Amino acid sequence: MAEKTVQKMAVAKAINESLRHALETDPKVLVMGEDVGKLGGVFRVTDGLQKDFGETRVIDTPLAESGIVGTAIGLALRGYRPVVEIQFDGFVFPAYDQIVTQLAKMHARALGRVKMPVVVRIPYGGGIGAVEHHSESPEVLFAHVAGLKVVTPSNASDAYWMMQQAIQSDDPVIFFEPKRRYWDKGEVNTEAIPDPLHRARVARTGTDLTLVAYGPMVKLCLEVADAAAEEGRSLEVVDLRSISPLDFDAVQTSVEKTGRLVVVHEAPVFLGSGAEIAARITERCFYHLEAPVLRVGGYHAPYPPARLEEEYLPDLDRVLDAVDRSLAY
User: Which one, of 329, 321, 267, 257, lies nearest residue 292 by Cα?
Assistant: First the structure.
């Protein structure tokens, strides 16, 4: 019996299946990171891969993020396509120098002769009751760096296909995985023709206001749209999928239709990706906007202890409040 091409699976499982497919089809693909082998990763995203592909393809590394990324750079120079895992978002900073000073610059430094097909997987965001340094949202720090692609799926299908596309990219890709969504299930068609990696997706159509989000906040914005619909308001939800490059055309098209925009992300509002979106859309859509672009996100403060994280993270009420303020103009 032929294996079903459409399967329902969790986001974590979709990434696992995507990595498995890449390992099967390209002998130059390697998976590296702390506990990715025997343990299968702390979230079990790489579960079973070392057993099936061996310790030379799925490599348990020392606890040394700078060394992990530095080794991946060397492997990429030798023609490999390493996929490295940073175990938690807050652990990436020891590797930040390697990523922004070396990984992001190699292509330009070599005048295009050297390619850097490295994927850096980073579980990110809050909502799981973790301890300090385990719930950060540092995506804008990487989006600011020229030479890096920064993407984040919000559902199982995108998790599967965007990982495939990231591994196939000759440029380095920072792949942020929303850890609170690891267990959310959805349908994955493993024989579909996926959208381009950096194209935004309209997750729900609407006419009164545009909600823009990515990663863990897309599900929340869909819930906001459901709640608003009960009051007769039609909200459009745009899933960015890619943070760098950013699909401003898709956002512009939506805002020209609705006249209003609220941007939602877990990361702090101050100098967050929402600030860039607000500035660009104000420039592009000035005569279409019926209200200022509003932003909802985290506070400009260290991420709080787990008992307080629900006060820090955007929730239904905070986003609905921004929707009400926008529609009141």
Answer: 329
